[in-house]
Write a structure and sequence with these properties.
The chain contains ten helices and five strands; from the N terminus they run ααααααααβαββαββ. Helix 2 runs antiparallel to helix 3 and helix 4 runs antiparallel to helix 5. Strands 1-2-3-5-4 form a five-stranded mixed β-sheet, with helices on one face. Helix content is 62%, strand content 11%. The longest helix has 81 residues. It has two domains: 163 residues, no CATH class; 136 residues, 2-Layer Sandwich (Heat Shock Protein 90). The two termini are 45 Å apart. It is an alpha+beta fold.
């Protein structure tokens, strides 16, 4: 809390000037704090006043120095007729030392001045043995302990307010980070859903349109146009469904995960129609054991992984059989798709790698494991997902 600059504050300049002028006025009017002290002439009371007055200029920037000079001045004032201005300036310097000083000084001054007050009171009573001697302790407490306690109270309030402000800023920052993460997660989810729903149909359209352009055969062109139309209609239907789900979720309704593993046979049927021209066949090996229903996120993720794997097979696999395997055992749902790996003649659709990223993200979000890569003459995609509600990652 101590200021970094030595330039006095404007309020401190006014305070210093006003305090010194007030002390001079009291001295000129003959107002003294100890008229029975005549060790020095009356003008000697001005020396402590003029020494402590300029210290008000440094009350914020050098509180330790001002308190030391102020203590010496108020002690010297006790050997003169006394000036009330000197005492008042000292109380302000004590208050400023607690408010603007280092934390150690702010903690020690209220304790030390409280002890000084008690000691002075005990010594005065033991020495003078009169009820009026208690006033010495009261005045000491007003001059020393009172300002220190007031400064400590103000400083504690300021520190508490600053801590509350910092906590509010941190809370707002964390809330903004949570909001940004939530938006990023939702955008990633929408990107995966859009890619998985549409990429299959667009890949089929790209492959068959390329075949129609490269093979000069009316029968081939007619067949390709039929497949293109079918996939265009299905892709448009999928897009409309996705838009409907997003609108329902935006209106406060929970979007249901419509695709499920029961639709895998229909998914493979479409893949057979789209991959026939490339010499691809698709088979399903469903080895799921009877059991409780799968969690909806797991079933949706498994369906999308199979869908994306079939899309990649249509774009990149060599002629042969694409095997889709689904099994459920030991609390895990295993999805494996194996497609022929090697050079492929004829047209193929370009790939961006987003499908593999999406499948990996879907698996890891549920706490599962995902692998993809060549194994001999096949390309294998394998995902293991938790098949029970209690094991699905939040």
């Amino acid at each position: 809390m101590q200021s970094k600059t030595l330039r006095p504050h404007r309020d401190d300049v006014l305070l210093a000037v006003a305090s010194v002028l007030a002390g001079l006025l009291l001295w000129s009017l003959g107002v003294h704090t100890g008229n029975n002290r005549h060790l020095f002439p009356a003008w000697a009371a001005l020396v402590p006043l003029l020494a402590i007055g300029p210290m008000e200029l440094l009350r914020r920037t050098a509180p330790r120095l001002t308190l030391a000079v102020g203590t010496a001045a108020v002690v010297a004032d006790q050997f003169t007729v006394g000036n009330l201005g000197t005492v008042i300036i000292f109380t302000d310097l004590m208050y400023a030392a607690v408010v603007y000083g280092k934390p150690t000084m702010a903690r020690r001054l209220p304790v030390s001045t409280g002890l000084v007050t008690v000691v002075v009171t005990v010594v005065a009573v033991a020495w003078l043995r009169t009820p009026q001697s208690l006033m010495i302790g009261v005045i000491t407490g007003i001059v020393c302990f009172g300002p220190a306690l007031t400064g400590a109270t103000l400083r504690n309030h300021r520190e508490a307010a600053e801590a509350a402000r910092l906590r509010a800023e941190q809370t707002a920052l964390l809330a903004e980070m949570d909001r940004a993460q939530a938006v990023a997660a939702e955008r990633a989810r929408m990107a995966r859903e859009l890619h998985d729903m549409v990429a299959n149909h667009l890949s089929a359209i790209a492959i068959h349109s390329t075949a129609a352009l490269s093979i000069d055969s009316p029968a081939t062109s007619r067949e390709a146009l039929g497949v293109i139309r079918e996939n265009s209609v299905q892709g448009l239907a999928e897009m409309r469904r996705l838009i409907g789900l997003l609108r329902e979720a935006g209106a406060g309704q929970e979007a249901a995960a419509v695709p499920c593993l029961d639709g895998l046979e229909a998914l493979l049927e479409r893949a057979r129609a789209n991959g026939a021209a490339s010499g691809l066949d698709f088979v399903l090996q469903d080895a799921r054991r009877p059991g409780p229903p799968l969690p909806a996120p797991v079933e949706l993720a498994a369906y999308r992984i199979v869908q994306e794997s079939l899309t990649n097979a249509l774009k990149h696999a060599a002629a042969g059989t694409v095997a889709v395997g689904v099994a459920r055992r030991d609390g895990l749902l295993t999805v494996a798709v194996e497609s022929p790996y090697g050079d492929r003649p004829g047209p193929r659709a370009p790939g961006s790698g987003a499908g593999l990223v999406g499948m990996r993200e879907r698996t890891e979000l549920l706490g599962g494991t995902f692998t993809a890569g060549p194994r001999g003459s096949v390309w294998q995609v394998r995902a293991e997902l938790p098949a029970e509600d209690g094991t699905v990652a939040e």
